[in-house]
Design brief:
Elements: E1 15-26, E2 33-44, E3 48-52, H1 59-66, E4 74-79, E5 82-83, H2 89-99, E6 100-104, H3 115-125, H4 132-141, H5 157-170, E7 175-179, H6 187-204, E8 208-211, H7 215-218, E9 223-228, E10 231-237, H8 241-253
Parallel strand pairs: 3-8, 3-9, 6-7, 7-8
Antiparallel strand pairs: 1-2, 1-4, 4-5, 9-10
Helix pairs in contact: 3-4, 3-5, 4-5, 5-6
The protein binds adenosine-5'-triphosphate (ATP).
Length: 254
């Protein structure tokens, strides 16, 4: 089930996503809120980026606009070179389904389906029939090869999140967007999920963009972007939790 380039075929230098002057305002004058102000950056292929910032700084809006779930009011988003603003609503839906993967805080699994059926669902929705060996391979990758036929209620929170990650990985997306993926987990399960995301990047060449409030979670990334009041104000490369927490505290008190 290898529709797009395999990780080894992906080049280390290409940009998976490019943001150019990304702007999103809500409401009109005099109550206009600038949730994003001319944010420009790139998310290189095979990299793990964390997005941080105080509450209300624009993290969710950045993720939503970058993943084509919300339309920016200015600037451009390029996913694999495709300018999202040139796509119709339907084409954006197809791009999300076929080329992007999503992991949410609340797992968003379908309760009546088994782990294997949940993982296969996005591929089925795009009209393809995923081979059972591929679904087994992806669930084995996340350490749940023995739990393929369990329903979400029969799995722990950490296991459910790993099923959700398997679901995101199964269609070989160009970028995996994770929104507070450890927010609902205890610290041990959270650590397992973060190690798994790290492994996807290091061993498979996946590209991960993660929004988080947690400096420890962000320390698993190659690079941490900091938003403040809708603007991209700083970035740290290969940071440790302590330096991330210190920078965040400065922005929160600013
Ligand atoms: N649909 C909306 N209508 C009006 N304002 C909005 C809307 N969505 C977000 N905003 C505003 O845009 C700004 C950025 O919000 P956003 O949710 O992106 O921040 P965040 O950094 O993700 O916050 P948190 O960490 O609290 O989740 C905030 O001022 C918020 O109130």
């Amino acid at each position: 089930m290898r529709r797009t380039a395999t990780p080894s075929e992906r080049t280390a230098t290409s940009d998976a996503v490019r943001l150019i002057g990304l702007t999103r305002t809500y409401g009109g004058a005099p109550h206009e809120v600038a949730a994003l102000r001319e944010v420009s950056t790139t998310f290189p292929a095979r990299s793990f980026t964390a997005v941080m910032g105080p509450s209300g700084s624009g993290k969710s809006t950045l993720l939503q606009c970058t993943a084509g779930l919300d339309r920016p009011t200015g600037g451009r988003v390029l996913v694999g070179g495709v300018d999202l603003s040139t796509l119709s609503e339907r084409q954006r839906t197809e791009l999300r389904r076929d080329r992007l993967g999503f992991v949410f805080q609340s797992f968003n699994l379908i309760a009546s389906l088994t782990a294997a059926q949940n993982v296969a669902l996005p591929i089925r929705l795009s009209g393809r029939r995923p081979p059972e060996e591929w679904i087994r391979e992806v669930l084995t990758l996340v350490g749940l090869g023995e739990r393929m036929h369990h329903r979400p209620a029969e799995l722990s929170g950490g296991q459910q999140q790993r099923v959700a990650i398997a679901r995101a990985v199964a269609a070989q997306p160009e970028v995996i967007f994770a929104d507070e993926p450890t927010g609902a987990l205890d610290s041990r399960s959270g650590r397992e999920v973060l190690s798994l995301l790290r492994r996807l990047v290091d061993e498979r060449g996946d590209t991960v963009v993660m929004v988080t409030h947690d400096p420890f979670a962000a320390s698993h990334a190659d690079r941490v972007l900091f938003l403040s009041d809708g603007a991209l104000v700083d970035e740290l490369r290969s940071p440790d939790s302590r330096s991330i927490a210190a920078r965040l505290a400065e922005l929160e008190t600013a």
